[in-house]
């Protein structure tokens, strides 16, 4: 007999659309909205799950390697009106308070001068 599935940490429900995996229904809904904005010509070059390297891979004194750290943005696009790149992340109130996310958000601002738009 199979065990019932354990609920996710933040109670989000993973879902798919056209073989694209989304971490939540809210993220999938935002994807649909951004596709409509792109079709209307308000945004362009819409991409999802875009990685940004925050710290490079480095060799330690003992010869072992420290992994690179990265931030993966939910959505990246260019706003046609402002001409600026926008980096979006779909976050609940609880996940916005996550210490790891806050640190990565600060590193994105420091390294790339990018303020993450939280949806």
TrEMBL record:
Stated name of the protein: DUF1064 domain-containing protein
Lineage: Bacteria, Pseudomonadati, Pseudomonadota, Betaproteobacteria, Burkholderiales
Pfam families the record matches: DUF1064
Species the sequence originates in: Paraburkholderia franconis
């Amino acid at each position: 007999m199979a065990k019932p599935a354990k609920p996710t940490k933040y109670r989000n429900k993973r879902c798919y659309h056209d073989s694209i995996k989304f971490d939540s229904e809210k993220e999938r809904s935002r994807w649909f909205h951004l596709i409509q904005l792109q079709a209307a010509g308000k945004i362009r070059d819409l991409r999802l799950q875009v990685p940004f390297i925050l710290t490079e891979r480095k060799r330690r004194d003992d010869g072992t390697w420290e992994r690179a750290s990265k931030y993966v943005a939910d959505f990246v696009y260019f706003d046609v009106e402002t001409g600026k790149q926008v980096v979006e992340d779909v976050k609940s109130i609880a996940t916005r308070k996550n210490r790891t996310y806050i640190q990565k958000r600060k590193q994105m601002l420091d390294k790339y001068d990018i303020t993450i738009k939280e949806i």
